[in-house]
Amino acid sequence: MSLENMEGKCLRPETKDVNGVLMTKFISDNWDTIWSFQARPDDLLIATYAKAGTTWMQEIVDMIQNGGDLLQCQRANTYDRHPFIEWMLPPPLKSGLDLANTMPSPRTLKTHLPAQMLPPSFWKENCKIIYVARNAKDCLVSYFHFSRMNKMVPDPGTWEEYIEAFKAGQVLWGSWYDHVQGWWDRKNRHRILYVFYEDLKEDPKREIQKILQFLEKDITEEVLNKIVYHTSFDVMKHNPMANYTTLPASIMDHSISPFMRKGMPGDWKNHFTVAQSEAFDKDYQRKMAGSTLTFRTEI
Known about the structure:
Elements: E1 15-18, E2 21-24, H1 25-29, H2 31-35, E3 44-48, H3 54-65, H4 70-73, H5 78-81, H6 96-101, E4 108-111, H7 121-124, E5 128-133, H8 136-149, H9 159-167, H10 176-186, E6 192-196, H11 197-202, H12 204-215, H13 221-230, H14 233-236, H15 274-287
Parallel strand pairs: 3-4, 3-5, 5-6
Antiparallel strand pairs: 1-2
Family: Belongs to the sulfotransferase 1 family.
GO cellular component, one term: cytoplasm
Keywords: Cytoplasm, Lipid metabolism, Transferase
């Protein structure tokens, strides 16, 4: 049974901590299976905090791997092309692990796990990992709207409540601050390409060239331009294989908020009041003190 065939009302999931990080109960109940997942040496992992440009990077990578062949990149939904390794669903639905384990190599996989919770086989096999990081305020706004429309994650509550939950790390996959710093701290010890959402938005061509170099791929200028165009927000927004519109409204209700909403750095200014922004900044400075990691909140 696939997600597209789910009928009726989709209930919001229960949550349960795993090692102090909030997860759905399905993930938590199956944690041992996830932790023992067997990576393969030629796996490529796309890792992000939720709503940091995951689908965007998946499309870029898929187009690179398929030499810009559009038809090939539309062979299936994004979540079927790149298994979401920790995503567990109630039977008879297929989980990300089921999909990954039956997929031939080389696989491109996806995760939102913080670095310390990544199944150890990924480090052991020295897999290549692309990590995408997005500034906290825009991430928060995007995650809030996503949580409103996606019934497979907990209800976000009010905007005011959500800001506090996000700051406290009481959202699925835990603290944004721990997540971006945890992956940043490992980037020089492992094969990790750390990409910033804002850089990708500002100059997609330059950033895609970095990805090509990391993946040891060569493409023509013509194919590069094609990838830049077809992975732009405005084009992807209308691609049913990337925009999650094939899912029933009982799971993702795009009338509440589209999955691909704005994709523009600085949108947080349309949501935060001056007081909320100042309080957020103060908390941010405290949590990011001592980190060499810096973000741009607009471009």
